[in-house]
């Protein structure tokens, strides 16, 4: 089985619609794909309706969190999307996205970049606007050569010149909410230092004690030594170790299935999730 547990659609900051995402996942030879848009479940219905025969969809979301000033992401799988506490927190994060993005546009204009809010909003379309949309605008303007180059201290990286903080969950509270909604909680790309500061491993241990289910070890932003280290850390802490592409369509260079999750780890995630079940086409 080929299992990719981290992919985005136009419901947040990917370039594939949810329907295109599941079709492309099947074409890439995947058996299982997770839809994990940022802080939203808006793509679920379309993805399920378009699910190709033989492909299994894991519903999820990537939740925005912050601990001691450090931004981090939590992948939530198979939670009940209607559970009110978690739904309310997702809504608070989404409501903050537009003023936050407008603040980054204003900072970029102060830095001499001829970017406009209308340009960013057009790129985001109906998706949940975020930094990748601003980064795409910077590419269109010729300010940076590609989206990844916008995520530096010079521009949009955490604490970068144009960075604006947003409403984010405390990760311990996020784990509690995900588990309360019947979901499974996995720390996304925990040592992706190129994205900015990372939380210390002691915090990962504390999250594990608080109910965290796993860590995303195999990811494009982890080099081979880091991946091996994270697999060892997961074993030490009794956590599941996942792998995934963090696919965003044409907005990033990663491919569906570039990194994958072991079948036994996926089986354990599916067994632990009680808020929703994987859907097979």
Percentage beta strand? 15-25%
Total number of helices:
11
Radius of gyration from CA coordinates: 18 Å
How many strands, which pairing sense, and closed or not: the largest β-sheet? 8 strands, mixed
- Rounded mean pLDDT is 95
- Poorly predicted segments: none
Overall structural class, as computed from helix and strand content, comes to: alpha/beta
Termini Cα gap: 15 Å
What's the β-strand tally? 8
DSSP helix fraction: 25-40%
Order of helices and strands: EHEHEEHHHHHHEHEHEHE
- What does the overall shape look like? globular
Sequence-ordered SSE layout with sheet pairings:
Blueprint: E1 3-7, H1 18-27, E2 32-35, H2 44-49, E3 56-67, E4 70-77, H3 84-95, H4 97-110, H5 117-124, H6 131-140, H7 147-150, H8 171-180, E5 184-187, H9 201-209, E6 214-218, H10 224-237, E7 240-243, H11 263-272, E8 279-280
Parallel strand pairs: 1-2, 2-3, 5-6, 6-7
Antiparallel strand pairs: 3-4, 3-8, 4-5
Helix pairs in contact: 5-6
Would you give an account of this structure?
This protein has 281 residues and is an alpha/beta fold. The chain contains eleven helices and eight strands. A hairpin with a 2-residue loop joins β3 and β4 (70-77). It starts with a strand and ends with a strand.
């Amino acid at each position: 089985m080929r299992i990719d547990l981290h992919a985005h659609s136009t419901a947040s900051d990917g370039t594939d619609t949810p329907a295109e995402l599941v079709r492309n996942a099947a074409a890439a030879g995947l058996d299982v794909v997770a839809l994990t848009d940022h802080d939203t479940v808006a793509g679920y219905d379309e993805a399920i309706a378009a699910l190709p025969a033989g492909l299994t969809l894991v519903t999820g979301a990537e939740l925005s969190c912050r601990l001691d000033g450090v931004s981090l992401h939590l992948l939530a799988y198979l939670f009940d999307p209607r559970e009110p506490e978690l739904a309310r927190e997702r809504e608070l994060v989404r409501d903050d996205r537009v003023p936050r993005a407008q603040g980054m546009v204003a900072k970029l204009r102060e830095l001499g970049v001829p970017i406009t809010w209308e340009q960013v909003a057009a790129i985001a379309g109906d998706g949940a606007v975020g930094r990748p949309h601003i980064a795409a605008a910077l590419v269109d303007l010729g300010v940076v050569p590609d989206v990844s180059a916008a995520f530096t201290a010079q521009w949009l990286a955490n604490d970068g010149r144009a960075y604006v903080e947003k409403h984010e969950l405390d990760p311990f509270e996020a784990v509690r909410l995900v588990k309360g909604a019947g979901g499974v909680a996995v720390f996304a790309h925990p040592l992706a230092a190129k994205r900015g500061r990372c939380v210390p491993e002691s915090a990962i241990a504390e999250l594990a004690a608080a109910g965290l289910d796993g860590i995303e070890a195999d990811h494009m932003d982890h080099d081979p030594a880091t991946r091996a280290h994270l697999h060892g850390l997961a074993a030490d802490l009794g956590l599941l170790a996942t792998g995934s592409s963090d696919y965003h369509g044409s907005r990033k260079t990663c491919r569906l299935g570039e990194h994958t999750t072991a079948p036994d780890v996926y089986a354990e995630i599916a067994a632990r999730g009680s808020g929703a079940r994987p859907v097979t086409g």
